[in-house]
Amino acid sequence: MSTSAPAPTHSLNLSAQPLLVRRAAVLGAGTMGSRIAAHLANVGIPTLLLDMVPEGAHHKNKLAVLAIENLAKSKPAAFYDASFADRITPGNFEDDLPKLAGCDWVIEAVAENIAIKHKLLEKVVEHLGPNAILTTNTSGLPIAQIAKPMFAPIRQRFFGTHFFNPPRYMQLLELIPLPETDPQILSAFAAFADRLLGKQVVLANDTPNFIANRIGVTVMFTAATLMLQQGLTIEEADALTGQAIGWPRTGTFRLADMVGIDVLAHVAMNFPQGAAPGNFFDLLAEIVKRGWLGDKAKQGFYKKTRGAEGKEQREVLDLKTLEYRPLAKASIPSLEMAKNAATLKERLRILLANDPAKDKAAAFLWPLLSTLWNFSAERIGEAANDAPSIDRAMKAGFNWEMGPFEMWDAAGVRETVTRMKAMQLPVSAAVEELLDSGNEHWYAPDGPHCFNPASGAWDMVPRQPGHARVADYRRGRRPVQSCIVRANSGASLVDIGDHIGCIELHSLKNAIGGDVVSLVSSVLRADSDAVRDFAGFVISGDREHFSVGANLMQLLLAAQEGEWDEVNGAIRGFQQMTQLIKFCPRPVVVAPFGMTLGGGAEMCLHAARRQPHAETYIGLVEAGVGLIPGGGGTKEMLLRSVDAAAAIAPPDPKDPPSRFAQSAQMIAALRRTLETIAMAKVSASAVDARGLGLFSAADRVTFNRERLLLDAKAEVHALIEGGYTAPVPRAEIPAPGLAALATMESGIFLMGEAGYASEHDQKVARWAAYILAGGRITAGSLVSEQYLLDLEREAFLSLCGERKTQERIGFTLKTGKPLRN
């Protein structure tokens, strides 16, 4: 297989009109094909899922039907909502290929075998519509070879699409065009994949394994080879290739188990002869031969077992004996010291500053990272057209915090090259060219340019229209007035242009403590300078998760010291903050993403609108630590219950409020709400959150994380253009009262009797029911929002004083898990 660098033939028009895909078809119902179909269903595209007819099967669609059934049970979940499975229609290659005529996009995803692909594609092209796009999904087979049987007109509408598994969660989509692929079609498809599929689209050349797998698998094999050479354990190798250097906590071998060891071996076989590091390959082949394929086989490099008391424990493979032994925590002192560094740049410099002759981490990381940097530099002009494409591919495909060239800049290019030469490690000619030109960075420190050794020039780094992070405005690298208006340790107000301010959360784990409350409150007060100067606000951030909730450590310390005035003041301050979000004269749009828990969810509930990322896992989880949502969350959920019941059966103005407050619709809505709060339910997606009452139908979902900030900003503008006026506090809320409270308490008792709720769970749930009922008052009594906030504060303070609540909080802070006591 040739490795000569192909001349780049394509570029993407980043402003192209997105391709219209009204219906799609996926050919191949295996793991990848079925999950691609599920993700198409997630974004609203009706999809045909076809596979071959099994020999002797009574049902010709058996494989596709089974695949859809398995999707419903898959973990992690393949669908945003289980009902979306209905958007997939099963079929087979014998009967249903004519249906492809009605599809705008047909994606072939059968086995990684060129002969099998050729046989199917020869039949498929006869049934394509005149404007249909045909793509092949492959992790590394040559696209030109797959396309050989196709006539010229089809080749213009054909290219490779390399999704990473699972497609719902993995951001990267590599597009690999033929020389004949129509550039306009390619750009239109890229725009569609960016906006609707939520993908980080990277253009790759038709070389073995393309970009991400080419580099990622080489690095994995290098890490494994170094581990064997240096006598390290799997645990030590995973620790050294994990979060310490900005890579996922899985490290090398846990990642291999997740991906599938057979898949890893198959990708390695696509490398040119002798290009993949070799002394680990034979060992890998033996593991595959034994059927230890990773998570799907329940054992690979790691295996879960049950101990003597039935407790689950993890064992690890000893590569010398090929027997499993108990897991041992890696103990590398320099690695532990580096973890205290605030940034990845600092960690890299600390780790690489040590003497490899004396330090285990430095001895491993110097040859590993030098291989990564050299190999990546040599892929410019071959696998990819430029360094930024490689960086984006590795970040999106392998979840790295930095791409190879960003890491090299962070570690210091000239310093590392000098050290590499002193250690007699190879140095790529590409980086020598960079340094010979008088530059010491791949990326220009003063602008969006990157050095390209293929041309010897600084290329502009193209910015995808509609993509932005708060950091872009912090750096002032956009053609708008951009600055930090005010800031503290937990949050900042950042001008993101067009008279919109962004309140960025950036505390540790984005926990909401006094610093966040203070800044948000000072910004959103009706008489503040910010409200006068800005037309609206977005609340969001750049971290992995929106917020883990309130700062429990502050709360626990105050409760244990009996500082009840301090606790009461903190709750009151939090409630005032959420009220300011709700009643701010300017529209406030919260843009959540990832974990959005407890207080983070309460911030969302009070916003004029929410603009969530599709992968938002939101929940009022306070019950898990023995509390109730006390920042206005329980109050807002009651208001949603009242509104939901009124939407189904509007109250008759002639009837007394008590009739509506005790209606079947009201009781049903309260039961659902109590269940959401008392069981600390967390949504599986932004779509799922609508079913929990945490998001509304009016809250639009963003599929691409990179578009979230500007989508939220656009939503603020839409509210302004629509003549936004702030709501007024509700003062005549019909309380469900004693009868509803009795019904809810009966349900809580039955949950306890059935073993679903401990005694303390029931106590927490009864407090939640008490607030949702409006207290022990007559049904239909009219209460205010402030009255409900006072009930919340009463319940929260009471529960803070409970020993079991304090035990729960302490356990969660220590382990990150809930305690059932």
TrEMBL record:
Q: Which domain of life is it from?
A: Bacteria
Domain Enoyl-CoA hydratase/isomerase, by residue range, is 510-634
CDD domains, per database record: crotonase-like
Q: Which reaction does it catalyse?
A: a (3S)-3-hydroxyacyl-CoA + NAD(+) = a 3-oxoacyl-CoA + NADH + H(+)
Q: Which biological process annotations from GO are given for this protein?
A: fatty acid metabolic process
Q: Can the keyword Thylakoid be found in this entry's annotation?
A: no
Q: Which UniProt keywords apply?
A: NAD, Oxidoreductase
Which intervals hold domain 3-hydroxyacyl-CoA dehydrogenase NAD binding?
Answer: 24-206
Q: Name one Pfam family in it.
A: 3HCDH
- Domain 3-hydroxyacyl-CoA dehydrogenase C-terminal residues, every copy: 210-303, 369-423
Q: GO molecular function terms here? A: (3S)-3-hydroxyacyl-CoA dehydrogenase (NAD+) activity; NAD+ binding
Q: What is the protein name for this chain? A: 3-hydroxyacyl-CoA dehydrogenase NAD-binding domain-containing protein
Q: Which organism is it from?
A: Occallatibacter riparius
